[in-house]
Design a protein that fits this description.
The complex is a heterodimer of chains A (about 1200) and B (about 350).
Chain A: E1 6-10, H1 11-19, E2 25-28, H2 35-46, E3 58-61, H3 65-77, E4 82-86, H4 88-103, E5 109-114, H5 129-133, E6 140-143, H6 147-164, E7 168-173, E8 181-185, H7 189-195, H8 198-206, H9 226-230, H10 234-255, E9 262-266, E10 272-276, H11 279-293, E11 298-303, E12 305-307, H12 311-317, E13 324-329, H13 340-355, E14 365-371, H14 380-389, E15 399-401, E16 426-433, H15 438-452, E17 456-462, E18 471-479, E19 492-497, E20 512-521, H16 535-543, E21 547-551, H17 553-559, H18 567-578, H19 583-598, H20 603-616, E22 620-622, H21 645-655, E23 688-692, H22 702-706, E24 712-717, E25 732-733, E26 743-748, H23 758-762, E27 766-767, E28 770-774, E29 776-780, H24 781-797, H25 811-814, H26 833-843, E30 847-851, H27 855-861, E31 878-880, H28 887-908, H29 913-916, H30 918-925, H31 932-949, H32 955-963, E32 971-977, H33 978-984, H34 986-995, E33 1000-1005, E34 1008-1009, E35 1015-1016, H35 1040-1045, E36 1051-1055, H36 1061-1073, E37 1078-1083, H37 1096-1105, E38 1112-1114, H38 1116-1120, E39 1126-1128, H39 1137-1141, H40 1145-1153, H41 1155-1181
Parallel strand pairs in A: 2-3, 2-4, 4-5, 5-7, 6-7, 10-11, 10-13, 13-14, 14-15, 16-19, 19-20, 20-21, 30-31, 30-32, 32-33, 33-37, 36-37
Antiparallel strand pairs in A: 1-8, 6-12, 8-17, 9-11, 16-18, 17-18, 21-22, 23-29, 24-26, 25-26, 27-28, 34-35, 36-38, 38-39
Helix pairs in contact in A: 1-2, 1-6, 3-4, 6-10, 11-14, 12-13, 15-18, 15-19, 18-19, 18-20, 19-20, 26-36, 28-32, 28-34, 30-31, 40-41
Chain B: E1 6-8, E2 11-13, E3 17-19, H1 28-36, E4 41-48, H2 49-64, H3 94-106, E5 111-116, H4 120-132, E6 137-141, H5 153-170, E7 175-179, H6 186-196, E8 200-203, E9 211-213, E10 218-220, H7 232-241, E11 248-252, H8 258-267, E12 271-274, H9 276-281, H10 285-299, H11 305-308, H12 326-339
Parallel strand pairs in B: 3-4, 3-12, 4-5, 5-6, 6-7, 7-8, 8-11, 11-12
Antiparallel strand pairs in B: 1-2, 9-10
The chains are: A alpha/beta (about 1200), B alpha/beta (about 350).
């Protein structure tokens, strides 16, 4: 057998490398966790990588998965070998086309990194909910359970689809398989040529639509024939399993890896058998091996071909001795008698018994259970627990494993201490910060071990749902035996903590095995470190007899010019201590990996990393562990005792990393959670925070305005209140005409700040004796933390401004309003969140938010906490996320309800005038809610109304009571990013605008799909590089504002707060006031633009100055007054586009990779700017007073 | 017919007008235009080691930030290094070297490389690359503003001299050094530089002088093109050094007109370098300058540049003291007299 390359890759790459080789057209759309496959395909095609026929596959990004499926259908009909990659909601959007593709017997393979479907909540993690939802489409479903299998099955599926004509859905668990890094044997082009029969490819092409031999496909059929025609495909489905098996056999003859439609592992005379599919089956089979070696008779049936379900193969796979079967489904079908695989097994066994083709004559006991939803761990301990459960005389059906279900008591017990880890396998767990590069270094380590040694190696990485201050946990295994183990390490030989402060937050040493190594990145040396450890850490080190090492990684990094990136330093320590390679060889390998990873970014980066590696060992020390526990420090509580009970007992446990232990009963049944919870989290992620200088401050509010995390706030208050202030509490005389003789304080939430520095950038006030000093300046956080916490807590006790007494039309005044969006998990320096915070300040007490999926929904609504909060009266934004594609419609639905309920309330109200008083009725019906005072007055009236109706025993009165709140106007804000507004949700957005209803749409335009890692959208500008536009986008950004203006009755504003905060404020106020649809397109700088976000506001200014982002407001009310509705708020361009663009890596990297194309695209982009500016000028100059044309 | 030819760094030039290091040499087409306009040689824009390091670190930062942190976005950019068979982004000297090679292949006039290093290794590595790419000479662009009060001027000068010696030992092509005027005893330092191996002195480097923005209270970078008044400083020093130091001189900063070239030559410069004037008036302005030089020489019956070179150096004029300190006082007093009430 030929020798193939051994590579260390993740599942995504392993699948994409086959799919790209055996297709001609690839239609893609980003969705986690499958985006990487599309990214690889796009990047490979961009560099001219060919398929096995020597031509470069054409890759096209569509506007949605629905669009991708349509394009695939079309490409297939035209005869191309076509594929796509998707997951979850994306797969759901493809289902209509999947029926068509299958109904027309069209060969194709969809590769799916299987993921949960959004129900009570969205989840990006892995299970089989999506693929089982597609099981009735007519696609064959083929399941792989490891990186190697995913690589292999990508090819087997392609071979089988071409022969069977049945389209295939090849799936593997999202994250656990898609993102696991493992050592695999790579298939060669020759393997693929051998597996793919060109005659079948040509047969596929011969069935294509062509005017040269025209046919009609896609007819409509009537009751007379549809049924019969639907049955015509049966022979193809009957033949399919054998075709798949034939492909598997051929594959085995080429590679030596033999798979079957249904595989069986375990004792030939097993009595207890688990049936399942996916990577959980790997865990089950390894556990079965382990238990059988100890005398058990167990087995596991691994279903690989799930559709068409191979009944014969399945029955044959079961040992004749089987007495009890447990079928495990990684999905949930509420209300069903059982989950899909369970029902299939029941039916198959029934058929087997009836036809006499079963290996057993007596029907075994069969039970079904659920496991592993949303990447819930599925471990050998759970498998062991299931086998134990199967010995019970009364079988628990419809059980769950891996959770504690104390509501329906469906969960089964297991011993979590049960482990089958091979003692020869080394297990290492690393706790790092996202920003310190830990994961990148560990990925390199796995590659080094996998490729430099005879060892097998596996890496899996657990990431954060916070974007700022993210914590990562890397799980690395290596050893002489092949490593499959698709579950996390809980018993490590090596635990590394890359951030000292984690010690007070997490009990990470629970992962350490006795006598394991503990490596700590410590700012103090081996002699001083002990006393700084929390008590529990000391206890564990002594109890488990850990070998304890310290290194001051930050010092080494600083000396090497690496800033705070300690990745290669900690990696060097790992190799030095673990001894997996001789030290010299390890250092050489690390340096080679550094060159490979960073060399393309220039020699300077490589040199600095080398220097860091070279300086490491001299700074690595073993700590002489004392015998006594000395510390009085304890691991701190995840949330303070003052937090509400639910926050403490549920959300706090999630924050502490103990969410897996929470039972079913603590969770809301309908996905409803309290708001205002981020404030309890106190993440302390900033090393430096701003400090206020009372003497320099001019109280302009600009720092408050731009703060992405609402950590800087200001209040104006009665000086008498200062009596109770802490001594350090700063204040100044308020500079407000409206508030004479009042005090002013600018306060900073020290434990919530991310240290982004945008506030400092925005501050216009400079010290006249030292201009480098401003009214706020960054200072080290730890020394002032305690003092500032006291100040902040006192600040929160000061009363909020009286909204009715304030004119909110100026930036200065608007920032006295309480933000009801605070401390989100968005990136430090985020360009989106300041707009949301402003929205919450202006109208937060009366808005409902429909939020499209994306960054906004993640930092807005990813458990454990939410930044959306309420004011002292309990009012605040009510927030919900439906889907990605339907957000405009979702918001419209809210509007329709509000209107209907308001109308109904107004209809009912007069009928109760005798009871509640005619005056009150008249006042409520003639309300003026155009300002804060009017709204406050109406609220009071409605409260009075409710009081007066409270005891009225009349069904209509009760009806009115239930909807009376709607008599106070509410605003609907429909919020999302450009991926939603320009692409996937555009159809809905356009329709909602067209409907003329009073909704407000806020598009936070980062010009890429930020949340999924920067894929191009139609908002991506020409000349910028993005994923899916690796050659630089060749076409200009869509002018969404212009499209909306074309209706004439839509309020449209294009804003950039860094360029004009006043125009931004004005646009929000006008949009909310406009009685019709409003659209605000907000320039949002983003980490995906590639520059230090501290310069985000400056870049916004340059974007406007270059004319790239003209500021304007289009207010249809002006047209009614005979004025031109379009007001251009920015000046004629004063700088060139490149002066703005080339500050950003998204533009510059094209210059650095293809200067000629970059220059050509930049020239065109400059022309775009010029022509758009001219067009806007002409539009703004038109007369609306009856005289058409220019003067 | 007057003879405009001159010799600079051992290179035979058809006239003394050289395009100094500027963005004009970034494009092949503009260098072609310079050649067509009659310019005798081109000093390429500087290869800045500091810029290379900065670009590399910045790209690394921008491509790294936010990565491998959040499950849905493990990276934010596609990897373009495979694109166009690149092993790395065009950070580093390769682009510069490639441009130099290209220029050499399309024009006949000499091309002088220009290098501004930061580390010793960088200076030598890049000097070698520039030589290998075919540069006719190398101009060392020492651009280092010393601000540390602890460092003695002698230490700084010694560092420069060591650097010149190392580069001299590494390459064969002629070396010029572009200096700033801020040396306590320039003639001494210049003489030491020549001893260390430089063939020519380019006087003077023109630092960007930061500007203060009174509205924003910020220090802002400001690029102001030179004017003829700025000629005086290098003119004086070339006049002083000519004949005392055995090196070629090129005058840079302030060459805008034919008269400026004539003055530079008379002070002792083998070459006059210009860039601002081309940026301001266009490349064809070079032809006008050269025509002007020719006309003036014809009108004043000069035969050749060689005849003129150094004819008004300090050693050649009737009153050598006019180039020294006293001159400053004299000018000031004449100024006072002129504007006295």
């Amino acid at each position: 057998m030929m020798k193939r390359p051994i590579i260390t890759v993740d599942g995504i790459e392993a699948v994409a490398m086959v799919a790209h080789k055996v297709n001609e057209v690839v239609a893609i759309y980003p969705i986690t966790p499958s985006s990487g496959m599309g990214e690889y395909a796009d990047a490979w095609s961009a560099v001219g990588k060919t398929n096995i026929w020597g031509t470069v596959p054409l890759v096209a990004e569509l506007q949605s998965e629905g669009g991708a499926a349509g394009a695939i259908h079309g490409a297939l009909q035209a005869g191309a070998l076509t594929t796509t990659f998707t997951a979850s909601q994306g797969l759901l959007l493809m289902i209509p086309n999947m029926y068509k593709i299958a109904g027309e017997l069209t060969p194709t393979v969809f590769h799916v990194s299987a993921r949960s479907l959004a129900a009570q909540a969205l989840s990006i993690f892995g299970d089989h909910s999506d693929v089982t939802a597609a099981r009735s489409t007519g696609f064959a479903l083929l399941s792989s359970g490891s990186v190697q299998e995913a690589h292999d099955f990508a090819l087997i599926a392609q071979a089988a689809t071409l022969e069977s004509r049945v389209p295939f859905l090849h799936f593997f668990e999202g994250f656990r398989v898609s993102h696991e890094v493992n050592k695999i044997e790579q298939l060669t082009d020759e393997d693929m040529r051998a597996m793919i029969d060109d005659e079948l490819v040509q047969a596929h092409r011969s069935r294509r639509l062509s005017p040269d031999h025209p046919v009609l496909r896609g007819t409509a059929q009537n009751p007379d024939v549809f049924f019969q025609a639907r049955e015509t495909v049966n022979p193809y489905y009957e033949a399919c399993p054998d075709i798949v098996q034939k492909a598997m056999d051929k594959f085995a003859s080429l590679t030596g890896r033999q798979y079957h439609n249904i595989d069986y592992y375990g004792a030939p005379d097993a009595e207890r058998v688990i049936v399942m599919m996916g990577c959980g089956a790997v865990t089950a089979s390894e556990t079965v091996d382990y238990l059988n070696q100890r005398g058990d008779k167990l087995g596991v049936v691994v279903v690989r071909l799930y559709r068409p379900f191979p009944v014969g193969d399945f029955l044959k796979s079961l040992p004749p001795t089987v007495k009890t079967i447990a079928v495990l489904d990684r999905t949930k079908e509420p209300g069903s008698i059982g989950e899909p695989l369970f029902l299939d097994v029941i039916a198959a066994i029934q058929e087997g018994l009836e036809k006499g083709i079963a290996t057993f004559s007596e029907k075994p006991r069969i039970t079904g259970g659920r496991y592993g939803l949303s990447s819930k761990e599925f471990t050998p301990a759970m498998v062991n627990g299931i086998f134990s459960e199967m010995t019970e005389s009364e079988l628990k059906n419809n059980f769950t494993v891996g959770i504690i279900d104390d509501v329906t008591n469906n969960s089964i017990d297991y011993d979590p201490g049960f482990s089958i880890e091979d003692p020869q396998t080394v297990r290492a767990v690393f706790f790092g910060l996202g920003s310190d590069g830990t994961v990148g270094a560990n990925k390199n380590s796995i590659k080094i071990i996998g490729e430099e040694t005879e060892n097998y190696a596996q890496g899996f990485f657990v990431y954060d749902s916070k974007k700022a201050g993210a914590i990562t946990i890397s799980h690395l295994r290596f050893g002489p035996q092949p490593i499959r183990a698709p579950y996390l390490i809980d018993n490590a030989n090596f635990v590394a903590c890359h951030q000292f402060t984690f010690l007070e937050r997490f009990d990470m040493l629970k992962y350490a095995a006795p006598k394991a190594v503990f490596l700590l990145n410590s700012f103090v040396g081996p002699d001083e470190v002990w006393d700084l450890l929390p008590r529990q850490v000391q206890e564990t080190i002594i109890e488990k007899e850990l070998r304890f090492y310290v290194i001051d990684g930050y010092k080494v990094a600083e000396e090497a010019g690496m800033g705070r990136r300690i990745n290669t330093i900690m990696q060097t320590c790992f190799f030095a201590i673990s001894g997996v390679l001789p030290r010299e060889q390890a250092i050489t390998a690390i340096k080679e990996a550094i060159r490979k990873t960073y060399g393309k970014r220039g020699e300077a980066v490589v040199k600095r990393n080398f220097e860091a590696v070279d300086k490491t060992l001299a700074n690595l020390f073993e700590v002489n562990v004392p015998e006594e526990v000395t510390s009085q420090l304890t691991i701190r509580k995840p949330v303070p005792d003052a937090a509400p009970e639910f926050t403490r007992e549920v959300l706090g446990e999630i924050i502490a990393g103990r969410g897996d232990d929470l039972p079913v009963s603590v969770f809301p049944v309908d996905g409803t959670y309290p708001t205002g919870t981020t404030k309890w989290e106190k993440r302390n992620i900033a090393l430096e925070i701003p400090e206020w200088d009372t003497d320099i401050c001019i109280q302009c509010g600009k720092c408050v305005f731009v703060c992405p995390h609402a950590v800087i706030r200001e209040k104006v208050y009665d000086p008498a209140l200062l009596e109770k202030a802490p001594p350090s509490f700063p204040s100044a005389n308020a500079r407000w005409k409206e508030f004479p003789n009042m005090k002013y304080t600018l306060s900073i939430a020290p434990e919530d700040c991310t240290g982004c520095g945008l506030c400092i950038e925005a501050c216009p006030a400079k010290d006249k004796t030292q201009v480098g000093r401003k009214a706020i300046n960054m200072v080290d956080q730890p020394p002032i933390r305690e003092r500032e916490v006291a100040n902040w807590e006192f600040f929160l006790t000061l009363p909020e401004v009286d909204r009715t007494a304030l004119k909110i039309g100026t930036v200065k005044n608007s920032q006295l309003l309480q933000p009801l969006f605070e401390f989100s998990g968005a990136c430090a320096g985020c360009g989106e969140t300041p707009y949301l915070k402003l929205l919450s300040q202006l109208f937060g007490d009366r808005i409902m938010i429909a939020n499209a999926t994306g960054c906004t929904s993640i930092y807005g609504g990813n458990l454990p906490t939410t930044p959306w909060s309420a004011n002292a009266q309990g009012r605040g934004p009510a927030w919900s996320n439906s889907l990605f594609e339907d957000n405009a419609e979702f918001g419209l639905g809210m509007r329709l309800t509000l209107e209907k309920h308001q109308e109904y309330a107004r209809e009912l109200l007069p009928t109760f005038s005798d009871i509640v008083g005619q005056d009150l009725v008249t006042e409520i019906l003639n309300d003026d809610q155009s300002n804060e005072a009017g709204i406050a007055a109406q609220r009071k009236r409605v409260e009075l109304l409710k009081e007066r109706l409270a005891n009225v025993d009349d069904p209509h009165a009760k009806d009115l009571l239930s909807i009376a709140d709607n008599l106070v106007n509410k605003s609907i804000w429909i919020v999302g990013g450009d991926g939603w507004a320009y692409d996937i949700g555009y159809g809905g957005l356009d329709h909602v605008l067209a409907m003329g209803r009073n909704v407000n749409i806020l598009v936070l335009d980062t010009e890429v799909y930020s949340n999924t890692g920067g894929q191009a959208s139609k908002a991506t500008p020409r000349a910028a590089v993005a994923k899916f536009a690796a050659k630089g986008k060749g076409l200009p950004k869509k002018d969404l504002g212009m499209s909306a203006m074309s209706y004439g009755y839509v309020y449209v504003a294009k804003i950039a707060m860094g360029a004009s905060d006043q125009q931004t404020l004005r646009a929000f106020i006008e949009a909310d006031a406009y009685d019709g649809p409003s659209l605000i397109i907000a320039y949002s700088h983003c980490i995906a633009h590639g520059y230090d976000l501290i310069k985000g506001l400056e870049q916004q200014k340059l974007a406007v100055q270059s004319g790239y982002w003209p500021l304007f407001r289009y207010n249809p009310d002006l047209a009614d007054q005979g004025k031109n509705p379009l007001i251009i708020d920015s000046k004629k361009p004063t700088i060139s586009l490149s002066d703005y663009a080339y500050n950003e890596t998204r533009y510059r990297m094209l210059l650095q990779s293809d200067e000629q194309r970059a220059e050509a695209l930049m020239k065109q982009a400059e022309d775009d700017v010029e022509s758009r500016w001219e067009l806007y000028q002409q539009m703004a100059a038109m007369h609306y007073d009856g005289k058409n044309g220019n003067e | 017919m007057v003879d405009l030819t001159t010799s600079y760094l051992g290179l035979d030039l058809k006239n003394p007008l050289i395009a100094s290091a500027s963005p004009l040499s970034q494009k092949v087409e503009t260098v072609r235009q310079l050649e067509r306009a009659g310019i005798a040689a081109v000093v390429m824009y500087s290869l800045f080691e500091e810029q290379i390091i900065y670009d590399s670190l910045r790209l690394d930062r921008d491509l790294s930030q936010g990565t491998e942190s959040f499950s849905e976005a493990l990276t934010f950019f596609p990897d373009l290094t495979a694109y166009n068979d690149l092993n790395q982004y065009s950070i580093g000297p390769d682009d510069y070297v490639e441009n130099l090679r290209k220029l050499k292949s399309v024009v006949d006039i000499p091309i002088i490389g220009s290098l501004n290093g930061l580390t010793n290794g960088g200076w030598i590595e890049y000097a070698r690359k520039i030589e290998e790419a075919g540069a006719d000479a190398l101009e060392l662009n020492i651009y280092n503003l010393s601000t540390n009060p602890e460092v003695f001027s002698q230490e700084i000068e010694n560092e420069y001299l060591d650097l010149v010696r190392s580069i001299r030992a590494s390459i064969e092509i002629p070396i010029a050094i572009k200096l700033s005027p801020f040396f306590t005893n320039l003639p001494n330092f210049a003489s030491n530089l020549v001893e260390a191996g430089v063939n020519g002195l380019v006087l003077f480097n023109r630092f960007y002088q930061p500007e203060l923005d009174l509205e924003e209270l910020e220090v802002v970078p400001s690029l102001v093109l030179s004017n003829s008044q700025e000629l005086r400083l290098p003119l004086r020093w070339i006049a002083i050094l000519y004949g005392r130091i055995s090196a070629d001189f090129a005058l840079t900063t302030g060459i805008h007109t034919a008269e400026d070239v004539l003055k530079a030559t008379m002070a002792g410069a083998s070459a006059s370098m210009a860039a601002s004037t081309f940026l301001k008036y266009g490349i064809d302005h070079g032809t006008e300058i050269l025509d002007g030089v020719k006309s003036w020489m014809e009108e004043h019956e000069y035969e050749s540049i060689a005849q003129m070179k150094g004819s008004m150096s300090q050693q050649a004029v009737a009153e050598p003291a006019a180039f020294e300190r006293a001159n400053y006082i004299k000018v000031l007093s004449s100024f006072d007299l002129r504007f006295a009430p």
